[in-house]
Amino acid sequence: MLPHGDDEEKWLAEGIAGIQHNAFYMHRALDSNDLKDALRYSVQMLSELRTSLLSPHKYYELCELGYLFDLACSECCLCRSWILMCFFSGDWEDMRAFDELRKMEMFFREETARGTISVIELYELVQHAGNILPRLYLLCTVGSVYIKSKEAPAKDVLKDLVEMCRGIQHPVRGLFLRSYLCQISRDKLPDIGSEYEGDADTVSHAIEFVIQNFTEMNKLWVRMQHQGPTREKDKREKERSQLRDLVGKNLHVLSQIEGVDLDIYKETVLPRVLEQVVNCKDELAQHYLMDCIIQVFPDEYHLQTLETLLGAFPQLQPTVDIKTVLSQLMDRLSIYAASSIEVLPEFLQVEAFSKLSNAIGKVIEAQVDMPVVGAITLYVSLLTFTLRVHPDRLDYVDQVLGACVKKLSGRAKLEDSRATKQIVALLSAPLEKYNDIVTALKLPNYPRVMDHLDNGTNKVMAVVIIQSIMKNTTCISTADKVEALFELIKGLIRDVDETQDDEIDEEDFKEEQNSVARLIHMLHNDDPEEMLKIICTVRKHIILGGPKRLPFTVPPLVFSALKLVRHLQGQDGDVIGEEISATPKKIFQILHQTIEALLSVPSPELALRLYLQCAEAANDCDLEPVAYEFFTQAFILYEEEVADSKAQVTAIHLIIGTLQRMNVFGVENRDTLTHKATGYSAKLLKKPDQCRAVYACSHLFWVDEQDGIKDGERVLLCLKRALRIANAAQQMANVTRGSSGPVVLFIEILNKYLYFFEKGNPQVTSSVLQGLIELIKTEMQTDGSSDPSADAFFASTLRYIQFQKQKGGAMGEKYDPIKI
Amino acid sequence: MVLVLAIGDLHIPHRAPDLPAKFKSMLVPGKIQHILCTGNLCIKEVHDYLKSLSPDLHITRGEYDEDVRYPENKTLSIGQFKLGLCHGHQIVPWGDLDSLAMLQRQLDIDILVTGHTHQFKAYKHEGGVIINPGSATGAYSSITYDANPSFVLMDIDGLRVVVYVYELIDGEVKVDKIDFKKTATTQSAH
Fold this sequence. Notes:
The complex is a heterodimer of chains A (820) and B (190). Chain A has 820 residues and is mainly α. Chain A has five domains: 1-225, no CATH class; 261-370; 375-472; 475-495 and 504-602; 712-820. Helices cover 72% and strands 0% of the residues of chain A. Chain A has 41 helices and no strands. Chain B has 190 residues and is an alpha/beta fold. Chain B has helices at 21-26, 44-53, 97-107, and strands spanning 2-7, 34-37, 57-59, 73-78, 81-86, 111-114, 121-125, 128-132, 150-157, 160-169, 172-181. In chain B, the strands form two sheets. Chain B has a six-stranded mixed β-sheet with strand order 3-2-1-9-10-11, covered by helices on one side. A five-stranded mixed β-sheet of chain B has the order 4-5-6-8-7, covered by helices on one side. Chain A: Keywords: Cytoplasm, Endosome, Golgi apparatus, Membrane, Protein transport, Transport. Chain A: One of its GO terms (cellular component) is cytosol.
């Protein structure tokens, strides 16, 4: 029965007093070299340690070095060592304990060497100590000297000691005693190549000794569990935990025995140890010891004894947390596999995968109450193992995923964040290993696992997949793979169920969709037929994305298709006899329908730009009706949907710029479109914008190529119209603001005149130019407030004219009549 | 020695997934003093990336840019040079050097940086220099077929500017350089 606080303090104080009392007499005896008396008093002193009244912690305090160092006695190695042996933290590396023990041994060795007493006599002598505990400690110490003296075979002494220690059945005291025995015997085992090696079978004696000590210690340790009232169970378990390394040390010693090779481990060591582990039927012990076995013995041994080892698991107590131990084992084996290539065939030879896989299956089946996260963690470990050891066996990988699916099916979507984290880890592992989504796509169970994620995590995983593709610049090259991929990431592509979060962060959403947009550029095949299939597959999916997603996903698809058109342009002619569906015409039809979808968003400005792109592409393919149709759509959007004046200015310039480059149109079509363009230009809201758009239209009638249109008259018409608008702007400014208007417009128009003058438009004569120059000069002089940028512009224009004049040759001649 | 990066028409993510890896490894923060970006990034991520390369970032609006607040054109002085920036879709005919020269005269600048055509150009005329850094991602263009990814680095030193053009051709980065010297300007009229 463990005592309560106050009482404990009282007993502790009494114990300390007793120790001090006897220590005093013991020292006196040592000083006078009276060994017999010294021993007697030491025994009395140490008898204080027979108390069962103290908890392990308090017991330690009793032996606390501090009290006894006060007995400033350097030769009192006996008591000091004794005290330190009871160093309850179990920290045997503590140098003080070790030093003191050595000193004590040294004392004995000196005495026996001196001949004061023979070792056998000493061995006899200490057994007369009245109380068993001190007797056994002293015996062990002497035993150490005995073995060292080689006056008896190590195996005999060890056998004697390990059996004598049975005398202490009190768990805590027994554990410490045997721990001490373990400690001092470590370097004295009759191992192969050791100085204590005996006759044949020597190693088996060593093993026998350690296993026996281990077995007894484990029994004592387990017994602690059953001492005391049930209400103090937790406290006991905590205390037991503190002492566990004392037991585990034996296994460590076993692993260090040279003579224990694979065969002996297999035949003797493992079965005996497992026997004890299973039979003790104690949860704490079983968990710790299984873990210990795995940590302490080499991985190659585990591999070769996998069946035996795994066979023990089902025999353990049902409450033992097997999954952690199993995970540990698999992780170790994974690392072992990664350590060197030569090791891998072993894994195959012992059929490691199937054994582990079966073991896990059994465990999950048996532990019905295991939470999902536990099962998934096991599968993650198994998957890591599989990817390291059998990366080429996709069937194994799929098997693991399949087992996961089985575990997850029949449940609602996962809510547990730890479980979902594990599943993300599970799904990310193949991606990282293979650096190639295509391989992951080959695993039938991969998408099934993803289906069991909640929407949020599904999207997270989808982003992980896309990032993996981008990082490895993987190219997805068939429509089937694209289909599979888009199925996987469907959480990003569309609203998967009606209850989609409206609270989704806008920034996050943008990032998500932009990553889908980038992904579309990774889908490619050089074969036009396949590429068209890919485009159609993507289109099929993104069209379901809804107005929020289309502005992100449509443009990359459009440009992907335009690239295909260009590719087909480059190819000569049709292959006769083959059914081709990948023709520019077909692609333009698809483009038309795709861009149309943007109207539902609505994104008229974006749609307008994309229509113009398609018009240019159709122009390059010589498809006049298709180009005309695209222009029609662009104009309709301009008329009906682009209301913002600034947007209109940009849009009209884009239309003019595109139209200027068209060479596919016949006269009629061209006339209709240019007429529309100039008309809308003149109708822009602000006069300066009108002016600029109109003079831009002048370029519609002059294309500086060999077969380009060069209609000088219509150019002039545009420029004159622009002048009129500039004039009107001037007058308006006078009237409304009492100031002059934008003189700069005139300078801009002058520059345009110069442009066409140089190109050889016969309608633009030097006198026309001269007139315009004079007009500007006048305007600028009458102008009250001067506009420095207009001044600079005019100055640089005049500089340019001067430069051209001085050029000489044809250009100089042309410019000659112009005076500035 | 002042380094000015001229870059643009990335069209991420509409026409290209990302800047070429070889370019990314060359463009390190802290080396470039100014960035002139012709436009068509198109998204904030690209803006942030450019901002990380140099704090002095100037951008003009391209017709596909997500942020519509970028200006139509911009002028600034670096050393002895006056530079101007404009995407170029506003100037019809697109890519026409004479029309661009008009803009240069209008902005009263020595160097005009412009884009839109996705084709590298460095053109000297009476009024100054026109530089088109091309498309940094080699994005699809209706104007230029098979554009190679390219960008320009200008080294401005006194009255001299050395224009380095970096082009990614068949997976390798090729560099070319062109020298321009500015004649000392006379006092301007204003």
